[in-house]
Design goal:
The structure is a homodimer of 349-residue chains.
Chain A (H helix, E strand, L loop, with lengths): L1 E10 L3 H19 L2 E7 L4 H7 L7 H6 L3 E6 L8 H15 L4 E7 L15 E7 L9 E4 L6 E9 H16 L4 E6 L7 H13 L5 E6 H10 L6 E4 L1 H15 L8 E3 L7 E3 L18 H14 L2 H16 L13 H11 L2
Helix pairs in contact in A: 1-9, 1-10, 1-11, 5-6, 7-8, 9-10, 10-11
The complex binds 3-isopropylmalic acid (2 copies).
One 3-isopropylmalic acid (IPM) sits at the interface of chains B and A.
Chain lengths: 349, 349
């Protein structure tokens, strides 16, 4: 029996509602599978924790997390009490950075029964591979001058290593899927970082026998709306991947179902699994948060741990639940978080 | 009789097809109006020109353009012959920068009869005010190290002056519309430029009695798909405005109809009017390019010149043409560039 040690961080808002539900599903899938178990340790790090301790996690927080096989996180942020940059950079982005989780992998898939805002969603099935450690989110910058002359400078830092790593991952993923990689660029307007990105994409693509394309982010965002079915794997910088994955979530019908994995590749630190959605203070506490984003994220965690059967089992239970119309209000349904979770558990085999 | 001197630059690809058609509409609208006329001078600056002269425009090109009341441009770019950064920065972006066209104004409006890819487009009517001179498109940056250690740095430069200017324009526009301004930010991930942008937005908003909101660009892109009808004026940085305006064009049904104005505010240089779409080499020469983007752009030029009656006349002719199903193939119609133009002219009053 394999035992995986999971660090659980429910975080803020609906994170506290969907994480326990997702764990019920994961544990049931593990039990039915019979060859592995999850040993979960919950950490209360959140804005509540911040209000009490003046920080988002203890000073040795990363040390504590380091020994786990994976981190399962809900959502971080409660802007009414703690400024976003404090909560996010104190917990979520800190873990992404310090644990060198260089890739953020985000599928967007049309599932039967979903209410896509698109008239004709035509079965799209794509994965965004987002560079997760640098680019437009670098912490390098500052301000100069005062008053009306004030200027802020933000450096976008693109390294060949990190870009290549994201691209190799994208190509290897495409080899297992539909053999097509699209690069998100903007080299016609952004003249240092993006032509560099394009050059690297060209040289990495030469190592694979895979169809490629490259679109500027403006056009690519539009194609996600007008013909999402054309894409397979899309590789993008930190910011572009962020934007594309919210568009991917929107065309699926709700950000409430979009899953994500922050992947560390070198075996030194755990990877972190957290859905695309945030803490949604507006609906927190009402019992209506969609648990599917978190559950699908759990499915990605099992895939990452090598438990493909249990992962596939969860995915088909999610698909059946949606196809049978058991949906929370964000998907135009009337089911509660609990009801959707119970349905998914009932469909596990 | 007012005479406006217009510099016409058809540019590349379909620019050569839609610009002459748009001029026919503008001239007819002027004639029907009876109080002004357009005196047009055409400049052949384009990738063809580049192939012959090794530059996109003559050395004194800007000098020649400076004396006009407005510039009416089609599209620039022919990547099969001239790299985009050469053609765009040698002509389009050069004019935007050198003539201090600090705002790029781009409406997106649901017109009756349009085939939006959205299931339920619900009459959205919004305008994107894009900062057009700096931000993520700064020409500051470079590379360091070689081989696998190579790094590219791109500086995003945000000045209080340019940001304020875009925001004041947005608020003043909203006062004439639905009194609501949304700011596109990403201050949770981009920690120098975007918090600066947010601060400026807050201080400018205090000068107006207008409802405001601020969304991160990822969420905002999704809202453009799930509830575009909620927006009025959206103010955004150079890159975010670029992305949002392509999404705006996509939800309208085709980038072929999306108009734009590059506005210079200080009376020192002409403003430039060019649609959102590019030169579209794939459909150039087939007589099927949608002329509406260029014609609607011409409407914006007349508005800018103070000819509101003629501008309104053109807009309602465009709306009638679309409502009557006279549409080019990009809008799922079968009419030619010429037929759409003739229909619009026939509806002018
Ligand atoms: C061609 C390109 C540089 C340009 C831009 O990004 O500004 C275009 O996409 C636009 O929106 O006008
Ligand atoms: C909260 C924010 C910093 C984060 C990001 O942009 O990375 C979020 O939008 C995401 O996509 O995970």
């Amino acid at each position: 029996m394999n035992t995986y040690k999971i660090a659980v961080i429910p975080g803020d808002g609906i994170g506290n509602e969907v994480v326990p539900k997702a764990l019920e599903v994961l544990k049931q899938a593990a039990e039915l599978n019979g060859t592995f178990q999850l040993e979960c340790t919950t950490f209360p790090w959140s804005c509540d924790y911040y209000m009490e301790h003046g920080k988002m996690m203890p000073d040795d927080g990363l040390e504590q997390l380091k020994k786990f096989d994976a981190i399962f996180l809900g959502a971080v942020g409660d802007p009414a009490r703690v400024p976003d940059h404090v909560s996010l950079w104190g917990l979520l982005l800190k873990i992404r950075r310090q644990f060198k989780q260089q890739l953020n992998v985000r599928p967007a898939k049309y599932l039967k029964g979903l209410e896509s805002p698109l008239k004709n969603p035509k079965g799209f099935d794509l994965v965004i591979v987002r560079e997760n450690s640098e680019g437009e989110y670098s912490e390098v910058g500052g301000r100069i001058y005062q008053g009306e002359d004030e200027i802020a400078i933000q450096n976008n830092v693109f390294s060949r290593k990190a870009s290549e790593r994201a691209m190799h991952y994208a190509f290897q993923l495409a080899e297992k899927r539909k053999n097509y990689v699209t690069s998100a660029t903007k080299s016609n307007g952004i003249v240092y970082s993006m032509p560099f990105w394009d050059e690297i994409f060209k040289s990495v693509s030469e190592k694979y026998n895979i169809k490629t394309d490259s679109f500027h982010i403006d056009a690519l965002s539009a194609y996600f709306i007008t013909k999402p079915e054309m894409f397979d794997v899309v590789v993008a910088s930190n910011l572009f991947g962020d934007i594309l994955s919210d568009i991917g979530a929107a065309i699926m019908g709700s950000i409430g179902i979009a899953p994500a994995a922050n992947i560390h590749l070198d075996g030194e630190y755990p990877s972190m699994f957290e859905p695309v959605h945030g803490s949604a203070p507006d609906i927190a506490g009402k019992g209506i948060a969609n648990p599917i984003g978190q559950i699908w994220t759990g499915k990605m965690m099992l895939d990452h741990l090598g438990e493909k059967n249990a992962a596939d089992n969860i995915m088909s239970a999610i698909e059946q639940t949606i196809a049978n119309g058991i949906k929370t209000p964000d998907l135009s349904g009337s089911a509660s978080t609990k009801e959707v979770t119970e349905a998914i558990i009932s469909y596990l085999k």
